[in-house]
């Protein structure tokens, strides 16, 4: 189950250190990576990163940097110093922004170093549709922009993307096998869909080619979260073994 555990990312969508600590204590045997987003990081800062690491798990720092190239490169170096396993930027920041980040991380922590984080790009947020893109002057549809931005990220040297499970095929076609795909929007058959519209089960998402799954409420809202996480892990492991 260790393979599956390292591919399961729990969305730590809470806003206090105490709640974060409780989740890490409860789930660190099942979950390899905890995702810290803007709210929790803005409230609690690097202390919450340390808390997860001291609890025996890795961190996905989900801050989606998007700024001038130098600023993103410098922020990325700070994420590297925090020892996070994964962090991300918006591919819409452009080729140079991503390439400068990769160059800075390469210089501080070369590829192959076990401490090197996975550098991910967000293509198009799943909350955006074709109309949202038109509103910001992009006339191409989401289905065209997602593989295009994924390829741009790959060409800039990024390690992978965050994407809806339904977009995995398009991204694999554009970027090939050696490119990580992290997917939220995953719902095991026992859980509610909540506000996620385009969902897949954990097994189907892995079989479709996802490398990591981000899962929040199917675990946090379950009657017994540790049991829910264990059931998800079993489903993931079965897909990995098939
Ligand atoms: O509770 P749930 O499993 O829906 O949580 C998924 C996590 O992934 C949340 O932290 C959510 O913000 C994040 N996310 C998402 N869809 C995206 C990108 C991130 O659900 N496209």
Notes on the protein architecture:
- The protein is an alpha/beta fold.
- It has a single domain (2-241), classed as Alpha-Beta Barrel (TIM Barrel).
- Helix content is 48%, strand content 15%.
- The chain has helices spanning 2-7, 17-27, 38-44, 46-54, 69-82, 95-108, 130-135, 142-155, 168-175, 202-208, 217-220, 225-241; strands at residues 8-11, 33-36, 58-65, 86-90, 118-122, 160-162, 180-183, 212-215.
- The protein has an 8-stranded parallel beta barrel with strand order 1-2-3-4-5-6-7-8, surrounded by 5 helices.
- The chain is globular, with a radius of gyration of 17 Å.
- It binds cytidine-5'-monophosphate (C5P).
- Cytidine-5'-monophosphate (C5P) is lined by residues 11, 13, 37, 125-126, 162, 184-185, 194, 196, 214-218.
- Cytidine-5'-monophosphate binds at residues 11, 13, 37, 125-126, 162, 184-185, 194, 196, 214-218.
| CATH fold group | TIM Barrel
Proper CATH architecture: Alpha-Beta Barrel
Rg result: 17 Å
**Number of individual domains:** 1
Question: Notable features of this structure?
Answer:
242 residues; TIM Barrel; eight-stranded parallel β-barrel; 15% strand; binds cytidine-5'-monophosphate
Summarize the structure.
The protein has 242 residues and is of the alpha/beta class. Helix content is 48%, strand content 15%. Cytidine-5'-monophosphate is lined by residues 11, 13, 37, 125-126, 162, 184-185, 194, 196, 214-218.
């Amino acid at each position: 189950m260790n393979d599956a555990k390292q591919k399961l990312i729990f969305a730590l969508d809470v806003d206090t250190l105490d709640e974060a600590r409780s989740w890490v204590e409860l789930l660190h045997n099942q979950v390899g990576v905890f995702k810290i987003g803007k709210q929790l990081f803005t409230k609690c800062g690097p202390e919450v990163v340390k808390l997860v690491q001291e609890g025996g798990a890795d961190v996905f720092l989900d801050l989606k940097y998007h700024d001038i190239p130098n600023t993103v490169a410098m922020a990325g170096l700070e994420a590297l110093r925090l020892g996070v396993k994964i962090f991300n930027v918006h591919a819409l920041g452009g080729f140079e922004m991503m390439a400068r980040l990769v160059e800075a991380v390469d210089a501080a922590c070369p590829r192959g170093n076990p401490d090197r984080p996975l550098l991910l790009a967000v293509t198009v947020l799943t909350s955006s549709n074709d109309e949202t893109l038109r509103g910001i002057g992009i006339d191409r549809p989401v289905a065209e922009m997602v593989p295009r931005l994924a390829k741009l990220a790959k060409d800039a040297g990024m390690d992978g993307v965050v994407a809806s499970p339904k977009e995995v095929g398009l991204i694999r076609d554009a970027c090939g096998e050696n490119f990580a795909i992290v997917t939220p929007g995953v719902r095991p058959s026992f859980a509610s869909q909540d506000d996620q519209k385009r969902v897949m089960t954990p097994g189907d998402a892995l079989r479709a080619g996802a490398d990591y799954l981000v899962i929040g409420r199917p675990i946090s809202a379950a009657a017994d979260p540790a049991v829910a996480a264990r059931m998800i892990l079993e489903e993931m492991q079965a897909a990995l073994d098939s």
